Amino acid sequence: MPTLRIPLRPLRIPAARAARAARTWWRTLCAALVLALAVGLLSAPAADAEVQDPRQEWLRASTAGLFLHWGMFTYPKHQNCREWERDVTEGGWSADYWVDEARKLGASYIVLATFHSRLGYARPWPSKIPGSCATERDLLGELVAAGKAKGVHIILYMTDDPQWHNESGTETLDSAAYSAYKGRQVDLTTRRGFGMFSYDLFFEVMRNYPDLSGIWIDNDNEYWEEQGLYEQIRERRPSWLLSNNNEDTPIMDTVSNEQKTGMTPAYDYPAAVTVPMPRLTEADYKLPTTGDWWYDGGDHQVDARLSTGRYITNAGSSIKSLMAETPMVNGKLPSQQEEFNDFMGRWVEPVRESVYGVEGGGYMYGGMQPGFWNDGAHGVVTVGRGEDGDRTQYVHVVTRPRTDLLRLRDNGYTVRRVTDLRTGEAMRFSQSGGHLSILGISDWDPYDTVFKVETDGRQPYYPQSGVDATASSARAGHLAADLADGNHETYWDSDGELPVSVTLDLGARKRATALAVNQREWSPTHARSSFGRPEDSARIKDYRVYASGDGKRWTQVRAGALRSARGVQIIDIGDHDARYLKLDVRSLWGGPQAPEFFDQLRIDEIQVAYGRPKPTRTPLPLEAEARENRLAGAARSVECGACSGARRVVGLGGGPRNSVTYRDVRVPEAGDYRLQLDHTAEATSSLSVSVNGAAPVEVPVVANNPDRAGGVPESTAVSVPLKAGANTVRIFSTAARGPGLDRIAVAPLPPASYTPKTTLTVRPHGLQWVGPGQRSITVTASLRLDDDEQLDGVSLAPRLPAGWTADGGPVTARSLRLGQTLTGSWTLTSPPRQDAGSADIPVTADFTLLGREKSVSDPVRVRPLPAGRIWAREAEDSANQLGSTGITSCGPCSGAEKVRNIGGSERAAVTFPDVVVPDGGQRTLYLDYTVNGTRSFHVSVNGGPPTVVTVTDTGNTTPRTTSVPVTLKPGANTIEISNATESAPDLDRISLG
Fold this sequence. Notes:
Largest sheet: 8 strands, parallel, barrel
Strand content: 35-45%
Number of helices: 12
Radius of gyration: 31 Å
Structural class: mainly beta
Mean pLDDT: 93
Distance between the termini: 67 Å
Shape: globular
């Protein structure tokens, strides 16, 4: 088939690569223009990528790969190439062993990392090119042959990096031998010289190993780019795949994402991936929980929970798990890794149809909604490949709910059968209101309970061919029409405008019940940093939906917040007849610290539903309209298409006389439980809950959409005491017109250690350096709730050290729900008649969750100026402008953080505004930095010409100090630290003496 090219998001490339790319660009462009003029047309833009190609098919069909870091510096390190090879052979190294271990993991391929900067640049093949260790035995050839015999592809890792050439004290790169071979002087310890050497190795490998399946590249080398290496690989070995580590390089087939951490849950690797489908994507991560990527002498534990969770969630997002293990010198794996591989071979086998040869569900391939489900449950959905692959789906419950029921959005699929895939047990299920509920689950797998869900397909959505879309703003090339064209590979881009609206024209008045929104999966789900690059979610937070018959008079039909989550998001709007629907996006989840993603909304597709799958006869437990319940007074059951059972109880206002009473709410043992109320309300109101005749507890209820539209349930939970066995729960409202009640649900409380995810932002960030005497600091803080929970009794305030004062008290809120924020500001003043000294001032948010007291805190840290300094500020201070640089941790640094990725472009700079000095004139500017090698800062004061400050060190881990004279004006000055053409050192702090 023809190569499909689609635009990708703007590339995020390291500063050094950006600089060399700029130098290479002009030469490449000239050559390209000459060629284009010769043939009379220009080729596709460089920002387009070969996203799909027949050579990729085997990898698209795969689930996993095995990443082996193994070389001359595998423990115990060898300093002599021949001695290493002797120990490899005498130890019994076998290519078949590696292939067999890969197959246990379900890995379709092995990436062999031996020519690695930290492993001695060893080549596991006989080579005629001198320059580093090369074996006489053809270990690579044996591995390729063994893999081919057993259906496992072999990919060769190649590094671009010479900087570790003498890490062990022994020079591993032989510049003299390679220079003699080339007939001219070449220094292999430079990037250009190493690029020339490794360039020759690519061609040697292409000549000698045609059965290789590709090359895995650990970032680019400028020499390779100048020589058109990748294009030549495409020409000479068109079946080979190319993969680049942590860079979305258009010519590459695969983007690999290295060792992502910090997600919630910890195993949810896709939550940190920033590559949209259908781009081939890897998650490469270590199976040993601790230790290096290579064998370091330890038999490190493999966390089965973490590793299986990553394996399953990656499969549920069409991401390939590239799992790194650490062979010893003889090729054998440490025992705990062997044991894990044996376990995986047994564990996956019963559910292999749900893991192998599948795509992620809830994305462009169809499927129900993945992510967070009821009562703490979390998981993914996989679907079969092909046109009708989504008719059979697999629900993977990686974190089980606290009950025997699993409930998830059905996304319009009519379910006809549910089976526990491991046991073969046919499961009871209920479907209504746009949800599938699997009932009576008792056999939970500790890592992944899989339900095979057979459907009659997806039905109640209008075809995209009948929907026209317009938007209040759109970036050129990504117009609103792209979100209603039925193609998830095109997308609408809001062009950085917020608020922004999208209007969908159905062509005539039609029934509308929901919007299914697939946002572009180009951002993480949460604020994080990848190698110092700030990232954040570019997903919808606050929204409103309007309906209109003529496009002029609009009625709001829904308002709320969407969770920052991957996969399809459903916005129920009740039941409406309308020609036009408008989605008004008020805000996104991301913050300004990640400018690439801030206010940058992209949507692949929005589909309009005109109904829901027909409710099943099997009811959901504890529905309000159930015949076992007692309806008193004006309480009555009415239709509600979005409710469970397609009905709800209304008429609960006016006090206890109008109520619904559940007479048989059963729990196994006495204790406090989480009681969830699914309710509908046109206006803010409340429900009262009485358990076993006790005094009622008032539960606040938020407004969501007009009752006349049939209602859309929202959930509120409260902690209630229940006795073992049967309980009576009575629900009413003291409001004149109370909310409607859809159902209740009872579950154990979350673990006492559970605290919902929040974002507490405190400014200033970074150590605050203060001079002598009494000092004042202005502090601002905001608390945002990121989980779909409710916090009650919220209070936000600084907790002052002895003698400190604040100009105001706590800011408070009765409650916070998903996406809502509480903000406060205070001026803090140190004790009078003495120096401020050192102080850690925690800014703390206190709240309750289901009756339990919780808190989160972040400190403002104050320190006296270092001796001999009149002013100082951390590089990571929130007062600075960081451009495209990023903050990363640094234990030895003054504030335990530093700024990296400085240099390589004009945006990659740190600007220090408001550098205030009492008198003008010359001062000494001190720069605290870390660096590996020789790099330069460019220091500019008040927009003047930059001064070059060059420093040299090794390791990039120990802070050093250098200085440069600067001329300042009285009052406020601006200092910029940059390097427009090359990578600069990392910056810890600047100060003035």
